[in-house]
Every structure is written in structure tokens, then in C-alpha cells.
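Question thread 4412

I'm putting together a teaching handout and wanted feedback from people who do this every day. The idea is simple: show students a protein as raw sequence, then show them the C-alpha cells that encode its fold, then repeat with a second protein so they can compare. Below is the first pair exactly as I plan to print it.
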Amino acid sequence: MSDLQAILDRIAAEMAAAPDRGKVADYIPELASIDPGQFGIAVCLADGTHCTAGDAEVRFSIQSVSKVFTLAMALGRLGDQLWARVGREPSGLAFNSILQLEHERGIPRNPFINAGAIVVTDALLSGHAPREMLGDYLRFLRHAADDDDIHINESVARSETETGHRNFALAHELCAHGNLQHPPDHVLGAYFHQCAAEMTCRQLAFAGRFLVNAPELPSLLSLARVRRINALMMTCGHYDGSGEFAFRVGLPGKSGVGGGILVIVPSRAAVAVWSPGLNAQGNSQLGTLAVERLARAQGWSVFG
């Protein structure tokens, strides 16, 4: 563990000195004022041993990292029925593309682009009011992280609701193709709130352990579904930057425009990194660089 801690400390120092930190998600007003100088990283091994560096105890908006957890919930409830409504292929386009959704007749390319995640949220609302669905979501997060101090930032959710016009357009396009079963306002209200959950790097790394698939971990999902979620994280977790992330890091990962990335090292560890400045694809610029350096230093890769 001392070697791992030294690696994280070195990476945090390198990221603190990095001159180009990307651009914060200023199209969401509540995220526009986040200090891009912040950086945190946490690694949680399968046995619960963990190391952190930098701003690993600062809460941040997990945004689209939430899609990993709602997908896990939906697969647990619906199983393979979910795949009739959402695909499993990389998008190759921006995460909020309306053109692609229209071209493919209302079936989102995968559950990690916005349209796909909206369908997953709609599926979770079946038989549940939005408040009940969000309660289940928070319970899942808290159980996965073994930490009850995880909450939704209402100001961020409100900010996203007021400015999320493109997501409303996606929801109405889904409705037009019969792939939304609840009113768009209800679905997007739940969706914006799930994205507005706040966690620290340490909490997020602990929460990701259910995807590590090590014998000593409690099982929240079947092995087959854990493997499928990891596969989708590898191929689709960074939108149209997924191939580049797989090439550079070689591990399944899911990013969010709040600057967080959850990375899974199968059978070994879960990694969470946060730096709010984004690259052109909407992924954390320094977070990507940091996990690339961590994976190289540790020899971690699904490719051997």
C-alpha cells in the first residue's frame, strides 16, 4: 500500500502543476463556478483497503457517472428486457446527439449517452413515483459505498432542469417514437436529480467495488451483468472519446461532466478521480491523464 500511496501522491502533485486543466461545464450554471484547480483521486482495493490523494474528500456532482448505478438497478429489475429499448453499441457522436436518436428511430445507441440514460430512468420509474425511484437510487448508492452520507444537490438539479433544453428535446423525441412510458417532465425531473448526486472520490471508489468482481466482495448484481456493465463502460463510457480512453488507459471507465471518472480494475480495485476541467468530448482532462499514469505505474490493463 505504501507504493500505491506514493504513486497517488506523485500523480496528485503532477496534476496540481499541470497548466492546461480543460474547461468546466459552464452550460450548467451551478457547475460553471467550480474551481478547475481542484484534483482528487482514490483507489479502493477489493478488500476495502484504500488510498487517496489531493482533494479526494471534496464532494462533486457525479453527473453521468450515475448512469452506471441506474443501469445496474435497471438490469437487476428488468434483466435483458431492457435491451429492447436501448442498444449496446458505441455512439461515435456527442453524448447529447438528437440527430442520431432521430436517425435510429428512437432507440438510443447505448445506455450511457443521454438518450439511453433517460430511457433507463424511465424504466426505473415503472410502478414508482419519481421520489420513490430517487429514494431507491440513493439507497443503492449508499449501500454500494457503505456510506449513508451521500445526497442529491437540489441546486444543481434545479440548474440542470432550467437549462436542460437539449435533454427535453431528446425526451420528446423518445416519446414521439413510443420509447418513453412516463411524462417527459417526470422522467427528466428524476434524471436531473440522479445526475446531481454528490460524492467524494473516496465514496465513489467504494461504491464502484461491486463491479470489481472479487470473491471477498458482496454481490449486488450477477456476475454476467457485472461483466456486461464493464464491457459497456469500456466501449461507451466516454462517449465519442471511448476509443481514446480504452487506448490510453485500457480499463473500463465512466465519466461525467462534473469532472469525475469511475474506473474498474477487474478483480483488483475501483478507482475514482475528479478534476472539473473537461476536454472537447466532455471528459475530465486531468482525470484521464491521471488514470492513464496510474494504470501504467501499476501495470493495470484488461489487455494483459
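The second pair follows. I'd like the answer to focus on this one:
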Amino acid sequence: MKKIGILYGKERSFPEAFVQRVNSKNFAGIIAEPLKIDKVIQGESTGFAVIIDRISQDIPFYRAYLKNAALCGTAVINNPFWWSADEKFFNNCLSTKINVPVPKTVILPSRDLPVDTTGESFSNLAYPLDWEGIFNYVGFPAYMKPFAGGGWKSVYRLTDKEDFFNKHSETGELVMMLQEEIIFEEYYRCYCIGGKYVRIMSYEPRNPHALRYVADFNPSEEKLKMMTDIVLRINHYLGYDFNTVELALKDGIPYAIDFCNPAPDAERTSVGEENFEWVVETAATFAIEKAQEQNDGADNLTWGEYIKRSASKQSLFYG
């Protein structure tokens, strides 16, 4: 019997529906259930063929559990090793190399010194930074947001450099990105599951949170194909099995705004019934596919093209 587990926190509608959907399909030798962890012993299998991770980004204990599980052959969705290394600024940098349009973006050192550091720890950092060069590159209005992490936590819209310095003084030890504002005509949030299943959803980030999926953009077939290609390209390079990509369309060009969401919102009350049905059905289908492919003791993780190409070069170098 191959077991599919789901690891989650406060959310209820998606995990419960996911388990029910997998089991309702009655695939021989495959069952789904919520995870229960009573101990974690190094190098020992969890007994799960597949685990969908919805919470380890907030709980380091769970992240360690998933890495151990992956080493023992579990197909973890998403790859916990890559997810531990990835962050939003890197994603933007990578996008500039794979022909995905992104807003002009810079990364900034934290406003306050990190714990256990002094000014001497930053011997290689120029002081002051080239603020005029930074502001001229990004422009205003702009957004400032943490370079890692999800949600709309510590996100600021800035009107000018005085506004920037006022808001930056509130960010403490957070490492922030300063990003060009894209004045968009249309906006979409796109699920991508398994690097092949894509759902493009109208989304209005300027609405209150509960109303953001209440949008009625009507993309042409050409726009749908263009956005689908971008979503797939991003996820193939990053290696995420379950992610969302947010695209802002300006003058017909889709700009990737936020695409590091490996535990994306899938609650029925926020995404709406049709989107909820799609994500439950598609996640269940993909998890069953992964369980069928999974081999005990092997590496069953998904690795992105960026990592695979780097590993390939190293293999050629060392023979």
C-alpha cells in the first residue's frame, strides 16, 4: 500500500477535500491521509510514498522532517531542499535569464544590524549606498517587500524617496526588495501543478482580500497561451510541483510579479468554488501520479532546470 500524506497548519477545506478526493478515486494500492508525526529518527522512512507540504515554510521542525523523508525516498511536494534555498529576489534574477519579463528590482541590506553583528561585519558594504542610482533604476511609485517569505506581510507602496526612507526605517532586520510598480490593465493568478497543469484565474490585488478573485478579465486565446508558456517556463526552471505565478499585463506584456508561492492559497472561501474544485482535483490527480512513479529508497524529488543544468556541467567537469 502506498500512502499519500498531507502536512498542513490552520487550513481545513483544502486538506480535507484533497484526502477525500484521492480516496474517492479508488486507485488500487493507494490511500491518502493527514500526517501524524510522533517521532523523527534519522535515516528512517516515514512510510509515505508522497507528502504534500503546506506548512513547513513556517515550522523548521517540519522542514527537517521532510528532508529526512525525501532522503528515504518520499516524493515531497514541493522539494524541501530547493524550497529552503529559494527566495523571491533570486527568482527575479533567474527570470532575467530565461526571457520572462519582471519589474525592475533591487535588493537592500536590512535597515538594522542583524543579531550578533556590528558595523565591522559589513566591511564590504559601501556606505551610503548609491541611493540615487537605485531610485533612478527602479523609479517611483514603487513597492518594497521582503526578499523572502509569502503573503502581504511588510509590503509597502512608496511614492517618492522621502516615503521610502520613512517606511524603510520600520523594517528592522528584514532584507527588502525595492521593485518597480507595474501599472497594469489586467492581472492574473495562475496555479501550476506538476509542471504541466495550469489554471489562469482573473485576480484583482487592489481589492480587499476576500474579493481578489472577484475579477472579470477576459484574456484572448493568444494571451492565455502566452501566460501559460511563461508559467510553465518559470516552474520548469525552479522545479516547483505546486506553485502560483502572478502576472500583471501592461501594454499586452505579462510581467511576473510574484512566483515563489509553493504553499499557495487553496481555501474554498478565498479562491471560490470553481477554482477550489480545480485545485483539489488536479492536486489529487498529480499526487496519485507521483505515488505510482515513486520508488522506495530513490530520489523522488523534482529538481528544476537551473539545478539540473548546473549538476550536468559539474558531472562533465569531473568526468
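Top answer:
Good format. For the second protein you could add a caption like this: DSSP finds ten helices and twelve strands in the chain. The CA atoms of residues 94 and 202 lie 25 Å apart.
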